[in-house]
Design a protein that fits this description.
single chain; seven-stranded antiparallel sheet; about 30% strand; flat
């Protein structure tokens, strides 16, 4: 008899999983149990009652972050005790790290030490500075979803475009958990400069490069400016041109998450990664199964109306056997978008966040 549902789930939510036989990516609903990770297909706006698979957690090894997939910086890897690798992608850094931490805690509880006490395990994103692939770090920095923000900076009357400060680079490396400390971040950033991936902009950072040793050449300073090297800018601009307009994607990311969206033509429900930005206020959605960084669609939130839909029966305009947590956005051009959140709380969080941008 299957006892998978006899325990209380520790965590539930959408993750994107790479297939074992065909290496495509599929959105699945994951349920973390004390000793296993179950996953289900989500179709027609509801979870299948039959699980698609399970990952036994005893003696699992977690790698977070896992940076071997270009344009997928939010992947973590689970390797079972039999050596089988499972690659899972979250919707944000916070979600990725929360999943990794919760899975790590479950694995630790399943692994008693010799004296019978639970063995301690270092943080899932432990420092592995000597193993970091600089090209992969650069790919993450370019990523439209979670890469470093480029902007214009003024120094002594001169304006420099498409650059970032030294402290912004350090903040980003620490926030992405590619390193654990600001000191490690400066060492990694120095390596990026030394290898020609980043270059100095303006007087302050250039002077530091001339006077400091290589190990201290990068400045954790809001007035020291850096940019991607000229030889790499074409690569970055190609990615930008393939996505939505630069203006749409220039706003600050306020919220990210997986939601189900009803299609306009076929009225089918599919999991999409939604990214909410401000200044300018836009809501974009992406196909999480593709490693393309271009949005599948999006719209300005100016003068939009967003409202919660009742859970009693199927509201007008909604197709399929959907189950609750629905909300609707009507754009200024009178286009209607129907979305379904995984939980009631997430629905309200999205509605509140969107309303603040309208």
């Amino acid at each position: 008899m299957d006892t998978d549902n006899t325990s209380t789930p520790l965590r539930e939510g959408f993750l994107v999983k790479r297939g074992h036989v065909v290496h495509n990516w599929k959105a699945r609903w994951f349920v973390l149990m004390p000793d296993k990770l179950l996953y289900y297909k989500y179709e027609g706006g509801k979870k299948d009652s039959c699980q698609r698979g399970k990952i036994l957690l005893k003696d699992c090894v977690i790698t977070c972050p896992f940076l071997e997939y270009e344009n997928r910086p939010l992947v973590f890897k689970l390797q079972t005790k039999d050596g089988v690798d499972h690659f899972l992608e979250a919707c944000s850094r916070e979600e990725r790290d929360d999943w990794a931490d919760d899975i790590t805690a479950a694995v630790v509880k399943l692994r008693p030490s010799e004296d019978g006490e639970v063995a301690k395990q270092p943080h899932a994103a432990g420092s592995q500075l000597h193993d970091i692939n600089l090209s992969k770090v650069l790919d993450c920095m370019y990523d439209v979803h979670s890469g470093i923000n480029m902007s214009n900076h003024v120094e002594q009357g001169s304006t420099y475009s498409n650059c970032f400060s030294g402290s912004a680079v350090v903040d980003w490396l620490v926030f992405m958990q590619l390193v654990l400390t600001r000191g490690e971040a400066m060492t990694l950033a120095s390596a990026l400069v030394e290898e020609g991936f980043l270059r100095t902009i303006g007087l302050k950072s250039a002077e530091a490069l001339r006077t400091a040793g290589l190990s201290e050449q990068f400045m954790d300073d809001s007035t020291a400016l850096y940019s991607f090297s000229d030889s790499l800018k074409k690569r970055g601009s190609v990615k930008a041109e393939s996505s939505a307009s630069a203006v749409e994607l220039s706003g600050k990311v306020i919220k990210r998450g997986y939601l189900l969206k009803q299609g306009h033509r076929r009225k089918n429900w599919k999991v999409r990664l939604f990214v909410l930005r401000s200044q300018p206020s836009y809501l974009h959605y992406y196909d999480p199964t593709k490693d393309d960084i271009s949005p599948a669609g999006g719209f300005s939130l100016r003068s939009c109306l967003v409202s919660s839909l009742g859970d009693n029966g199927v509201p007008s305009g909604v197709k399929g056997n959907v189950q609750g947590n629905l909300f609707k956005i009507i754009t200024q051009s009178d286009t209607h978008y129907f979305m379904q959140a995984p939980t009631e709380q997430q629905k309200m969080d999205w509605i509140d966040a969107i309303r603040k941008q309208t």
